[in-house]
Amino acid sequence: MADKKNIPQHIAIIMDGNGRWARERGLGRTAGHRAGIERVKETVRTAAELGVKVVTFFAFSTENWSRPKREIDALMRYLDRFLDSQIKELDKNNMRFLVIGSGEPLPKYLQDKIRDSEAKTRDNAGLTVVLALNYGARQEIVNAAKSFALAVYQGRANPEELTPESFSNYLYTAGLPDPDLFIRTSGEMRISNFLLWQISYAELFFAKKYWPDFRKRDLEEAVREYQRRARRFGRVNVS
Questions:
Q1: Which pairing describes strands 181-184 and 203-206: parallel, antiparallel, or unpaired?
Q2: Of 53, 131, 39, nearest to 87 (Cα)?
Q3: Residue 155 belongs to a domain
């Protein structure tokens, strides 16, 4: 078991490999996404059991709109079903649900359902489950810079007082701790425009397994690997 005294507060996950998992089994890509949703549910349960405070899943990037329309439509349907089936479960278990990213051009019915889901779970104090949906980190930073510039223009902020900590308040993740552990599945070793500002000091863990094969024991192993590392944040350890 992982050391419960040294659990990452925030785990960020790129759920990669659904399509390849399906293709190797002679299935359509959407079958991989369906299997991936089951791993999201299992990961949420495991994170809560371990005592993690926040888990963020990279669900759909701003670049994913270039995928075939049939696949995009299927992903939107799966998200809709996830919200219908899982928000009550999250609420029952005192978990909070958040979505980060740009609302447009998500279908309006999904935008409405996301807002309702966030409102329903807003006061819950357990695990926070975050979906990065229609998300791109570079655009997030640009939007944050625009928001800060507007605050300066309106006299609500002073450029001389800007710090990395205060700038974080203009990001989608305002109010959340930065990720301690970043996980990407499928053997790919890239960040892919995900939480670029927030993962500056995160420990990176690249799993060879495709996301549909990433089970409870794999998340626990990632946490154990995190616990084996010395996090110095630029400092030098003195023994």
A1: parallel
A2: 131
A3: no
> Could you tell me the CA-to-CA distances from 49 to 93, 189, 207 in Å, in that order?
11, 28, 21
pTM attached to this predicted model:
0.94
Domains held by the chain: number: 1
Residue 95 belongs to some domain of the structure: yes
**What percentage of residues in the chain have a pLDDT greater than 70?**
96
Q: What is the DSSP string of 188-215?
A: ----TTSSTTTTTTPEEEE-SS-GGG--
Note down the domain range covering 34.
10-136+180-228
* Whether the predicted pLDDT of 238 surpasses 80: no
Give the active site residues.
16, 64
Percentage of the chain lying above the pLDDT 90 cut:
84
Residue 102 phi, psi (nearest 5): -95, 135
Smallest CA-to-CA distance from 166 within 186, 182, 188, 148 is with: 148
- How many Å apart are CA 100 and CA 73, to the nearest integer? 20
Tokens coding 231: 């996090």
Cite the beta strand spans of 51-186 per DSSP E. 54-61, 96-100, 128-135, 181-184
Structure tokens at 112: 């409405």
Using one digit for the tens of pLDDT, what is the confidence trace for 15-27?
Answer: 999 999 999 999 9
